[in-house]
């Protein structure tokens, strides 16, 4: 992915005095506290999802499938707010693909529609269907998949052959198993996997219902253990917290790198502008469940609550403290006011997408070529995120933090390359 380099000078003048340096340390402490709370909330929600999945497996029905889907959507709320911790924190970036990798070649996991196709030059395993095959061959070696375990998914299957689309773990593998493929194209409706895909005996549809349940159980268990590990990294004594607190300049750079990279290349570019350019519903972040509007909204909210130093937990309690906004306001109150305005405008634009989707105008409908209302909604979010990034760049300069790199996207930086 293309990177955009911001060139400024070395150390922030705002960190020159002892009092301001202490303020910077307090800002980093709040940043770590919010990360710990977000990942703990993500873990709590993932454990609730695991409970709903086990209820589905033990007593398959339309009701238990719907409850598991609802638990998955709830689990996305805190997790999507954590993505602002990527890019600036290598410990998060190196781990993130285990839990949130997308898009995926779902045929690796389970049956797919005949029009989906088979193996391709890019991915020979695109239609492997692990659920239907207790043994298969990878790189000339026979793999025993008679038991579908977290270790099989993570160590053997996930991104096998170095292909990022071979996603075997995380939220989106679980999403596919709960919803199935969304075969509606730009039409209304999400995936519609029948509950009988988890039924036993003659009621089983799709074949291999026992193995499908086994895969779903293993994937949800693994999601919980991965989130438990990351939550520990941000707790007192955790490695991620220690890394952020070790150097004030590097810690502030991590905050701004995460904010700018998620705002610009990742969300405005790869998650929004690219899908609109391609008019491709498969480019939705949550394409099986039609939950993309919420993922975009909570990504934006994650950026906002890191800047303001405030996060509302899933139990309604507030985690707050000295913030980056406080630090900016000390040296440049006008810039702080500008950044707050840009954040508000972004949340309004993402909120309009969310409201429209909840009223029945699904995100994949917005992506359809010629749908002017959908394009306005999506580009409203893209433009607001880009404007927000410009203000983040000014904050980098104002705090005199040099050499920060933001993630870019061909869709924004080199649009002609998208179609090559």
What is the topology?
Elements (H helix, E strand, L loop, with lengths): L2 E3 L12 H41 L3 H19 L9 H11 L34 E4 L2 E4 L5 H8 L13 H9 L29 H26 L4 H7 L2 H31 L13 H17 L1 E3 L5 E3 L3 H8 L1 H26 L4 H4 L5 H27 L6 E3 L2 H4 L7
Antiparallel strand pairs: 1-6, 2-3, 4-5
Helix pairs in contact: 1-2, 1-6, 1-7, 1-8, 2-5, 2-9, 3-6, 5-6, 8-9, 8-13, 9-11, 10-11, 11-13
How would you characterize this protein structure?
The protein is mainly α and 420 residues long. It has 14 helices and 6 strands. Strand 2 (135-138) and strand 3 form a beta hairpin. Helix 1 (18-58) packs across helix 8, helix 2 (62-80) runs antiparallel to helix 5 and helix 2 (62-80) runs parallel beside helix 9. The protein is globular. Residues 1-21 have low confidence and may be disordered.
Order of helices and strands: EHHHEEHHHHHHEEHHHHEH
Overall mean pLDDT stands at 92
Strand content: under 5%
Poorly predicted ranges: 1-21
Shape descriptor reads globular
**Biggest sheet character:** 2 strands, antiparallel
Q: Structural class per helix/strand content?
A: mainly alpha
Through-space gap between termini: 15 Å
Number of helices: 14
Task: Tell me the radius of gyration.
Answer: 22 Å
Main sheet: which strands, in order across? 1-6
**How many beta-strand segments?**
6
- Helix content, binned percent: 55-70%
């Amino acid at each position: 992915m293309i990177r955009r380099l911001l060139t400024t000078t070395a150390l922030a003048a705002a960190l020159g005095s002892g009092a301001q340096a202490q303020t910077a340390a307090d800002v980093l402490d709040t940043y770590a506290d919010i990360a710990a709370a977000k990942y703990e909330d993500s873990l709590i929600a993932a454990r609730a999802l695991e409970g709903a999945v086990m209820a589905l497996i033990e007593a398959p029905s339309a009701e238990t499938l719907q409850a598991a889907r609802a638990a998955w959507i709830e689990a996305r709320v805190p997790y999507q707010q954590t993505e602002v911790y990527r890019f600036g924190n290598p410990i998060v970036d190196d781990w993130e693909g285990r839990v949130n990798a997308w898009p995926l070649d779902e045929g690796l996991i389970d049956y797919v529609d005949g029009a989906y196709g088979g193996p391709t030059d890019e991915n020979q395993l695109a239609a492997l269907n692990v659920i239907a095959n207790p043994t298969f061959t990878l790189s000339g070696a026979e793999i025993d998949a008679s038991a579908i375990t977290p270790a099989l998914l993570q160590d053997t299957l996930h991104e096998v052959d170095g292909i990022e689309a071979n996603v075997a773990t995380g939220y989106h593998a679980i999403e596919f198993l709960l919803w199935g493929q969304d075969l509606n194209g730009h039409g209304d409706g999400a995936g519609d996997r029948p509950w009988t895909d988890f039924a036993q005996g003659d009621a089983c549809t799709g074949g291999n219902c026992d193995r499908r349940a086994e895969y779903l159980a293993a994937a949800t268990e693994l999601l919980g253990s991965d989130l438990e590990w990351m939550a520990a990294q941000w707790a007192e004594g955790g490695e991620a917290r220690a890394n952020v607190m070790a150097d004030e300049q590097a810690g502030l750079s991590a905050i701004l790198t995460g904010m700018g990279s998620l705002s610009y290349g990742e969300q405005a570019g790869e998650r929004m502008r690219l899908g609109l350019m391609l008019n491709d519903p498969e480019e939705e972040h949550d394409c099986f469940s039609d939950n993309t509007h919420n993922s975009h909204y909570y990504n934006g909210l994650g950026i906002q609550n890191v800047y303001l130093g405030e996060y509302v937990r899933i139990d309604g309690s507030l985690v707050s403290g000295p913030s980056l906004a406080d630090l900016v306001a000390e040296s440049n109150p006008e810039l702080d006011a500008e950044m707050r305005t840009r954040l508000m405008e972004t949340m309004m634009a993402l909120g309009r997408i969310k409201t429209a989707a909840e009223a029945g105008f699904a995100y994949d409908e917005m992506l359809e070529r010629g749908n002017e209302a959908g394009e306005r909604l999506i580009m409203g979010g893209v433009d607001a995120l880009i404007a927000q990034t410009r203000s983040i760049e000014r904050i980098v300069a104002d705090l005199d933090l040099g050499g920060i790199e933001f993630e870019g996207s061909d869709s924004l930086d080199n649009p002609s390359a998208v179609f090559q």
